[in-house]
Design a protein that fits this description.
alpha+beta; about 210 residues; five-stranded antiparallel β-sheet; six-stranded antiparallel β-sheet
């Protein structure tokens, strides 16, 4: 499972220049990489529903396991940066998990600091010369600790854990400011639903731990 993801990332970097010069191919690749609507990973069942135009990317979701016990996901609105939105989504696809695993390894702590991760992503978008606005919500869930962490930079969201309904502070999109100032939500829960919406559409992500 993990090795196939690494191969996919290597292939993406090899094709990067071709993707930059061919937005239609980049958009097609992005649609092919969308995760299955239902899947199981890291002792969790995950399901999502999306309301977007079928012929062009809007909200792009990616979910991937980090280990047997934890997973990460993000949702990016690609509609506010022209062709750069799709390229930013492909860049995130290739780099996000590696950045998060690196942070977890260096911290020696059990839960990541997602705000500092988003600041890294903001810097990478600048280094890749991708101007524009990139509304992004990122999340991390540890099935052993039953702990969910969410941060939004420019996307609206609500979190429902059964016991609580929480409005997610949307903040400003990445790419808007030189630095990102973000509010992190941390909740203990065995199951949850997160509704996410922005200019690119609306998405509902549901998870239940085994």
């Amino acid at each position: 499972m993990f090795s196939s993801r690494v191969e996919e990332e290597e292939r993406l970097f090899e094709d990067w220049d071709a993707l930059v010069s061919n937005p239609i191919a980049a958009s097609r690749l992005l649609q092919e990489l969308q995760p299955p609507v239902q899947q199981e990973m890291s002792h969790c069942r995950i399901h999502y529903r999306q309301l977007v135009s079928a012929d062009k990317p809007g909200l792009v979701l990616d979910i991937a396991p980090l280990s047997e016990n934890d997973l990460a996901f993000y949702c990016l609105d690609v509609t506010r940066a022209g062709d750069n939105g799709v390229l930013a989504a492909l860049l995130l696809r290739a780099l996000f998990n590696g950045l998060l695993q690196e942070q977890l390894a260096h911290q020696g702590q059990r839960l990541p600091e997602m705000g500092s991760l988003l600041k890294q992503v903001n810097q990478l978008l600048r280094q890749a010369n991708l101007p524009g606005q990139f509304p992004l919500l990122v999340g991390y869930y540890h099935s052993g600790l039953k702990n969910l962490i969410l941060v939004s930079a420019g996307l609206n969201g609500t979190l429902n854990t059964g016991e609580h309904q929480i409005q997610i502070s949307n903040g400003v999109p990445l790419g808007t400011l030189g630095d990102a100032y973000l509010n992190q939500i941390s909740q203990r829960c065995t199951s949850w639903q997160c509704q996410i919406w922005g200019a690119g559409g609306r998405l509902r992500l549901m998870l239940s731990a085994e």
